[in-house]
Amino acid sequence: MQIKITSGENYAVLGLDGAMLNSLNKNNTEYLWQGDAKYWAGQAPVCFPITGVLPNGEMEAFGKKCTMKRHGVARINPFEVFEQHKNSVTFVQRSNENTKRDFPFDYELKIKYTINGDTVTNEYIITNTGKDKLPFVIGGHPAFNCPIESGEKFEDYKVIFDENITKPCLRPDHSTGLVNVDEKFDEMHGGNTLPLVHGLFEEKDALIFENCEAKSATLIGKSGKGVKIEFQDMNNLLIWSAVGNAPFVALEPWTGLASCSDEDGLFEHKRGMTILKSDETASFKFKITMI
Questions:
Q1: Secondary structure (3-state) at 5
Q2: Handedness of CA 105, 22, 3, 111 (dihedral sign)
Q3: Cβ atoms within 10 Å of 84's Cβ, excluding its own
């Protein structure tokens, strides 16, 4: 099932499967990666209650064993439509036997998409519906066509931050997805612009800008078309593309990170962890603007 939300001639299509973006369209141009198993079959999964991976896929949270695949349980369990309007839709997922088998906590996760003009706001609303504390991180994983415009190539694009990036980034290991914090990579050289080349993603995985100094990043090509992502509620931004010269770039705002080499092994102590008391709610937003 897919739901279309509109703002004038612009629209977004959301899929009930995973409650994620399936299309972003402006002036008959598709901005969102449409998925291709040759490179990566995904499009824009929602990562909850982990972003990235756990060591060997498991970790203990407040004394409870959690066993989760990459990016957690939300994307692989059913959602329902909670509310729908012309320019917005809200999906909801509530913890159940399947989610609690891997992540033994009670929660309600609402994902709301709203389109106004050229901008789609992504909002995550998490409520602790249980009696125990609820630990989690959450993140978006939207991938965008690169190139967007025909006649361009990947190397015609760059990512421009709204502030200079003076701190070196981290890079996950390709095979394990884990992050060695002792290895740092100065890809930005103190500037705000990252020229894109496929080789950037061949030897190492995503670029992780932890506690990012900027709060927006723009993927832009020589034609002037691109996307701007604003992530005021998220501390981290990842830039990723798949190996094999994949024609897309993902801009991923996360509250946390994949498991890092200096962590103590307790889930609740991981970077960026939000911990909600019973009946407590937290929300996080980021925006995607089609240029």
A1: strand
A2: positive
A3: 12
158-173 pLDDT per residue, tens: 999 999 999 999 999 9
8 Å CB contact between 237 and 252: yes
Q: For 82-103, how does the pLDDT look when each residue is reduced to its tens digit (9 = 90+)? A: 999 999 999 999 999 999 999 9
Helix (H) or strand (E) holding 228: strand 226-230
* Residue 238 to residue 223: CA distance in whole angstroms: 24
Q: Answer for the pair 217, 251: CB distance below 8 angstroms, yes or no.
A: yes
* Cα–Cα dist 162/165, whole Å: 9
Tell me how far apart the alpha carbons of residues 254 and 252 are, in angstroms, rounded to a whole number.
6
| CB of 8 closer than 8 Å to CB of 26 | no
CA distance 160 to 251: 12
Measure the N-to-C terminal CA separation of the chain; round to a whole number of Å.
28
